[in-house]
């Protein structure tokens, strides 16, 4: 599934104009090209390499260290790099590739949403990403969803208990991943709770 998601992202990127590559993404301070650099930055990286980057980035800025390393690459070179790593490798393949699937699914939408290029994410990928998102220690979802019940209106997926938050599965994923713009697409008595927990 991660390979399929990366392939579809690469196919999208191949259609973008130079201006779209430089457009802002949903990730604060990152352009589309920066998100692409981030998506490929874990491929071929060992745990030791990761620890070195974490130290250089003083932990909280580790992802920026990865992106900065790839900053000299052109859009075509970044696309070629993604095409060369469609199947996650080494650190990116952690947890059976689930980490790579979650990462690329969210970042694919981080690119598409600001560009006004929606799509239908395959249900099996979306369900897996939602399952992994709510328990990932690297994402804010575990805090955002605490004490509410999430109900997708188009996927038959639910999680948790408490005041209900309902909406399309893609918007749910992006909201619990911390994207404030997606929260507005959700409804229910738990929606203000989720909205208040998102910092951006």
Description:
With 200 residues, the protein is mainly alpha-helical. It is built from twelve helices and three strands. Strands 2-1-3 form a three-stranded mixed beta sheet. Helix 3 (32-40) crosses helix 5 (62-69), helix 3 (32-40) runs antiparallel to helix 7 and helix 4 (47-56) crosses helix 5 (62-69). The mean pLDDT is 89.
Cα Rg:
17 Å
User: Number of DSSP strands?
Assistant: 3
What is the mean pLDDT? 89
Shape: globular
Main sheet strand line-up: 2-1-3
Estimated structural class: mainly alpha
List low-confidence stretches. Answer: none
Q: Which band does the percent of strand residues land in?
A: 5-15%
Largest sheet descriptor: 3 strands, mixed
Number of helices: 12
End-to-end distance: 29 Å
Percent of residues in helices comes to: 40-55%
Tell me the series of helices and strands, N- to C-terminal.
Answer: HHHHHHHHHEEEHHH
Short description:
The protein has 200 residues and is mostly helical. The protein has 12 helices and 3 strands.
Key phrases:
mainly alpha; 3 strands; three-stranded mixed sheet
How would the blueprint of this fold be written?
Blueprint: H1 2-13, H2 18-21, H3 32-40, H4 47-56, H5 62-69, H6 75-84, H7 98-115, H8 123-133, H9 141-144, E1 149-152, E2 158-159, E3 164-167, H10 169-176, H11 180-183, H12 191-196
Parallel strand pairs: 1-3
Antiparallel strand pairs: 1-2
Helix pairs in contact: 1-7, 3-5, 3-6, 3-7, 4-5, 7-8, 8-10
